[in-house]
Amino acid sequence: MREMPEGSGERQDLETVVQAGRHGRDLVQRILAFSRNQEAVKTKADLAATARLALQMLRPTMPATIEIKEEIEDVPLVLADVGQLQQIIVNLATNARQAIVSDMGAITIGVSRAPQRPDRGGNFLRLRVADTGCGVDAETKDRIFEPFFTTKNVGEGTGLGLSVVHGIVTNHGGWIEVGSEPGKGTEFTIFLPVLGSFALPLETAAA
Length: 207
Description:
CATH architecture: 2-Layer Sandwich
Low-confidence stretches: 153-159, 199-207
Number of strands: 8
Number of domains: 1
Distance between the termini: 46 Å
Structural class: alpha/beta
């Protein structure tokens, strides 16, 4: 990569490969952290920049027939493990891609400030991942974050992806809301506290 000219297509392709390799390393570390209950390494993090980087890695892995819509605003910093934030986005986007069974549809990834809610303490950012896929029924939605629960065929999934997401979000003082209906797609909305904002312990909520 370093031998390629700055701005060349070859160098950009190799930069994507390097970033994907680092992400693969981080993925293994995240799974190990999940199984060993290790603490996240939290620093000041830019959720918008993290989401844009995750999208840069994800786009080459998606079929050209799936549109990726970016609705990312500049937002305040959060206190977070950047690798785990990327893992949230990659896990949710991967699930969204698998839910679009015909390879024809759209995935929307958004970052914005969350509206103030009287039932929650502090100020929060909102990370949204929505798809136009097959959706799930109410019974499946109620179990969606259970470890090893999966609707995929044998050999196609471990059932750990969403439970990892849930554990990361909870450990960061946030919560998740899920909206889905069969045939109408699925939307995951994650709320994370702004750096320095007071946040109460929260549970997962289903919309």
